[in-house]
Design a protein that fits this description.
about 230 residues, mainly alpha, 2 domains, three-stranded antiparallel β-sheet, 5 strands, elongated
Length: about 230
Amino acid sequence: MTDTPSESVPVTRPPRPLATRLFIALVVALIVTGSAFWSGYATLRSPAGWVGDRRFVSSRIENIQEDLTKYHKEHEAYPETLRELYDGCSDDEYNDRITIYRYPVSYQRTDTGWQITVFGADGKPGGIGLDADLVVTNEMEYEQIVRELYSGKYNATFEQVRTDDSNHFRILLVTSLIFGVLVFGVAIIAVNSLKWQYISINIVALIPIIIAAIIVGGAIVLAHTVATGH
């Protein structure tokens, strides 16, 4: 008697426990969301960020530096005051040229050239982070000023970012939370995909998270571009 070959029965793996799926999805959501939040937060707290209205810091310093150099070539001396440097400007244009961190810079003509002091976002001597002072002299190259500005000393503290009167931190926080919920939902589906037919479901589920990622990434890049003026 010949044995009839038995049909092979496909072996399927049972679904992962719900607790395991939730844990993995939570870890993935925390990592991805944390990375997105930190990227936006790092932009906000930088010397060229929105917090403290510090946009165009380096470019405005460079403009003043170039105008002083040009004045010296024409008059063989540096001006007594910045008002003398921008004598032909209206008051509004003059204030716009010399204002950094919402306050006008302090200018002094020295025996060897000139010195400009930027008193930070509080407009007062001293302070840390957002309020730290930046001293620029005629002996400093622009690249040296930029390196000093981005050395980390002038990054706003978390409390300064959180309590800033702009809404950018709140927007970043809300956007990150929405982003995290989307990542969490997609991760729960993806972590339990056992069959090929679930691939299409995952692709469809990933569409919202891809759109959200593009929006968040685009917003971060745009904020950095506008803030630095590059």
